[in-house]
Amino acid sequence: MHSYQKQTVTVQTHTDEHVEGERQTFLRVAEIVLSKSRVPLSAGEIVDRGIEQGLFGDHTMGRTPQKSMQARLSMDILHGKTDSQFVRTGRGRFTLRTSLGTSVSEQDNTIADVQSEYVAERRVLRTPKEEVLCVPESAFRDVLTFQGIDTDTPPILGQLLSEENTTYVGRAEAEVNNDAKQFITYVLVQCGQRLLFFKRSYLSRAAEFLRGSKCIGFGGHVSAADLDMLSRADFGLSACGRRELAEELFLPDRPRRNRKISTEANLTDKATIDLFQGVPLECLGVLNDDSSEVGRRHVAVVYRAWLPDWNTAKKLQKGDSSIKGLGWIDLSKDKVDITDFEYWSQLCLRRFYPSTLFTRARFEIVNNSRLASDRILVVAGRIGSGKSETANYLSQRLHCSLIKTGDLVRELMASPPISEIGREAFQTRAYEFISSEGGTKKLADAIASQIACGEGNRTIVDGIRNLDTFEHLERKCDSSVGLLFVQTPPDVAFDMYRAREAGTLKFSYRDFLKVYDAPVEGEISSLGRQANAYIYNSFGMEAFRRTLDELLPKMRS
């Protein structure tokens, strides 16, 4: 759990520490989310964006995190008064005190009696007892240049793991340090031709790179407690993997009600410890994921634990509250849909178990009647997702007009084309325009004007990136606007983007991230939550085009 508190607060008991840590986790998430937002947000919106950005880490929350966020913010404002860094701008809407005086949306009202020049008190992270193994950017920058999994493990770890490069840092401090990566173990559990997976519980709000209902990797941070005389050779990596397995899984050798767990020493049942201390642990590769804010602060070493006896393996039960249930994939006959798994598991499945996957894209329709009947269809997605390919395809096959919002933005900004100034410069200008007063409405009005001038009963709109623009367009068009969202894993998006750009062999993943994570792209995930249908593009263009053929009949009214 990530815990935060002011320096003046003294933790008295374990329970007090838990409550205070939870309170400060919510406040810290609110601070980060609101600092990036142009308008005040509700508690639910703050939680949604915090989860999207991976700010809760592996913090465990209850069924109604939005109510918890509302309560934490309300209490902080009540007790802190003008010392609180948060203020209400209207019923149920919050912003940072430092944002007062900047323009907000017309439905929000600022608090008149608060001085706009007030600087909110900075909160100091409380360093928890756990210290995690980290490597600084200076040591990994020229080594971790890939996205995904590299199986050439020895030279990578040889350059990262050394007394000169590594250090142990307090967990809370490490979680907000963008200049270092924390080591994580990610362990696959296999018995013969069976691969273990688990489903996440509603209690779990894992970071963005671990979101998803199914997962094949068990593990966590490599800590100072994993290093001893027997584990110095690999800086405690394998010891961490075995420890995490013993904590997240449980091998019953007596009735469950008699299970004893020591929170002080992290001791679980002897049968569970004996099992995972003795199983062969195979190092498969190094996983680097720079596609999310939290992913960029972690590097994972992927292991596979080989369980020798199926009679023992099939008795395994969940040992952690964040796990909803366990299951086994029979690799000799089962086929799985990769979109059912979180992103890191997708990477492992594609790399180590490709024959067990349905190699096709998939679509999911949330509202079929809207998708077929709406006269305007917006196609949205991240850079490299295949959204423009989708928009062009639907326009041609459905014989309807196509509006490219990138061209409209360029005209509204009076900007040279991307081919002249480059994508990064264009994105910067676009963000300045869309963030300016009335920018989103101007774009929506331009789209609506083109729709009115178009021929036919239906229009495809390619490339809306902002939720405000979409909502303005809905109001202009009497809500007759559908939304199709293309979801593509970051590594697949990189390959597709690189294939269409000039100088493909010299275009690195870090170059891609500069455009993928540009501020103008920041609200696309929020837009995706409004979609009437989703296309999951997990295997590139060939499989994606086959899925578009399957989707087409659903689009016809």
Strand-residue proportion = 15-25%
Radius of gyration: 25 Å
> Which regions have little confidence, pLDDT < 50, spanning 5+ residues?
1-20, 103-128, 202-212, 256-268
Give the CA-CA distance, first to last residue: 50 Å
The coarse overall form would be globular
* Helix fraction by DSSP (H/I, runs of at least 4): 25-40%
Total beta-strand segments: 20
Number of helices: 21
Overall residue-averaged pLDDT value: 82
What summary fits the major beta sheet? 9 strands, mixed
* Class by SSE composition: alpha+beta
Account of the 3D structure:
- The chain is an alpha+beta fold and 557 residues long.
- It is built from 21 helices and 20 strands.
- It is globular.
- 40% of the residues are buried.
Keywords, please?
alpha+beta, nine-stranded mixed sheet, 20 strands, 38% helix
Briefly say what this structure is.
The chain is of the alpha+beta class. Helices cover 38% and strands 18% of the residues.
What is the secondary structure topology, with strand pairs?
Blueprint lengths: L13 H23 L4 E2 H10 L12 H16 L5 E5 L2 E4 L34 E6 H4 L7 E3 L2 H8 L6 E4 H5 L4 E12 L2 E7 L13 E2 L21 H12 E2 L19 H9 L2 E8 L9 E9 L3 H4 L3 E2 L4 E8 L12 H10 L9 E4 L2 H6 L2 E6 L5 H12 L2 E4 H9 L4 H4 L1 H13 L3 H15 L5 E4 L4 H10 L4 E7 L2 H11 L8 H8 L7 H5 L4 E4 L4 H15 L2
Parallel strand pairs: 7-12, 16-18, 16-19, 17-18, 19-20
Antiparallel strand pairs: 1-3, 2-3, 4-6, 4-7, 5-11, 7-8, 8-9, 8-14, 10-13, 11-12, 15-20
